[in-house]
Structure prediction request, 283 residues.
Amino acid sequence: MAFFHAAPRRSADYTFTNLWGWAEYYGLSLSFRDDLCWVRQNRPFPRIWAPVGDWGKADWESHPELREGVTLYRVPDEMAEVLREHLGEERVAAEPSREQWEYLYSREELAALSGNKFHKKKNLVNQYRKLYGIDYRTLDVREHPAGLEDVLQLQEEWCRWRDCGSSPSLQAESDVIFRVVGNWARLPGLMGGSLYVENRMVAFTIGEPLDETSLVLHFEKVQPDYKGVYQAINNAFARHAPEQFMVLNREQDMGEEGLRQAKETYNPTGFLQKSTVKVRAAV
Prediction:
C-alpha cells in the first residue's frame, strides 16, 4: 500500500485489490528494490509491468533490468517521462497502449446527466425509474452483509447469461469477483452500490479510492432484462458516492470495440494514458 500511495500517478492496475484479485490469473509476483515494487506477470506469458513507488526518488541507472534492456508494460505516461529524464531520450522508446488507457469521468456530470451529450442516458435512467423505481443500497459488509451474497448470486446469473464457461477471460473475471467479494472485510477501502427491484438485486458496482479525489470502479454487472439498468446503476453510484471524489476511473477497454464504444458514450473528461516502454541496454 505504501508503494502505491507514493506513486506520483496512481493507475487502477496497481491497487492492492486489483493485484491481489488477479494474482492467480496472471501469475503475478512482486519484488522490492530501491523503494520500488516491481510487478512481474508470468501468465499467459511473462511480462514486467511498470514498477510502483516514488519514481522521482528511484535510482534508475542502477537497476540491472534497465542496464541490460527491458520492455515494461502498462506504464503511465508520467513514468515514461521520468525514465526519459533519467536515462536519456535515446534509450527510452514509448509506444502508446490505447487498449490500456483508463477512462476518467466527472462524478458530478455522471450524477447530473445534464445537457445534450447525456440526453439519451438520462432518458434511459428516467425510463428505469418509471418502470421499476430506484431502490439503491450501499454495499457494506457490516450494515448490509446480505448484499454481498446477492452480489455473488447476480454474478452467477450473469455468468450463465454470458456463458462464462466458454470464455476464459469472463470466467477469470468472475473468479476474481468471487475472491474479492468473499474477502470484502479484509480488503481496505472497498465500496460499492446496488439496485434492487422487488427485493431482488439487478445491478451492482464495486470500487475503491485511488487517492483523495478519485475512485476506481473495478466491477459492474447487471441483470440485462431491466430496461435502462446499465445507465441507472452508473448514475445512482455517481449520485451516492462521497462528494470528495470528483473523478471516477472506469478502467480500460482492453481493446474490445464494443466496450470502447460504451465507455466513450459516457463522455470521458480525460484518460490516464499508458504505454509499452522499451528501455535499450546501456552502452
User: Anything to note?
Assistant: Residues 150 and 200 are 8 Å apart (CA to CA). DSSP finds ten helices and 14 strands in the chain.
